[in-house]
Nuclear transport factor 2 family protein
Amino acid sequence: MRTVSFTLTLLFLAAFPGLADDRTDQDAIRKTLSNYVLSGDLRDAELAGKALHPRAVQFFHTGEGVRAVDRDQYQALLTKGEIGGQNRQFEVPNLELYRNTALARLVITSDTMIFSNYVTLMKEGGAWKIVSVTIHLSPNTAAKH
C-alpha cells in the first residue's frame, strides 16, 4: 500500500511540477514577510534590508496625503527609533503567487493599531524581496487599554 501511495505521489508531482515549487516559494515569501514585521518590532535596519528590495517603497496616508518611504528612509527611521519597537502579531490571510511575482495581504496588529498592508514581492536571484507596500492604518478598537 505504501508503494502505491508513494508512486501516486510521484506521478502527481511529475504531472504538476510547479506545485512543489509553489509550496517552497510560499514558505520563502512568508519568511520574508516575517522578517519585515520583525524588523519593525526590533527596529532592526539590517533585517529590513534583507526583506526589502533596494528600490522598495512603502505608501501610506498622512494628514497631508499619501507619503512614500523608500528602503533607505525606512531603515533610517528604524535606526533613529522613530518607528517600531513594539511586539506585534501578524497574519497573511491572502497570498497569490504567479511565477516570480507575489501579492500578499499582510495584517499586523499592535495594542493600539492595525496595519492592513498590500505587499508586492518579486523573486530575484532566488530570493523573495518586497518591492512595494501599501499600508492602511486604523486604530485597534478591540484592544484592551
Q: What stands out?
A: Residues 6-20 have pLDDT under 50 and may be disordered. Helices lie at 2-15, 17-42, 45-51, 71-80.
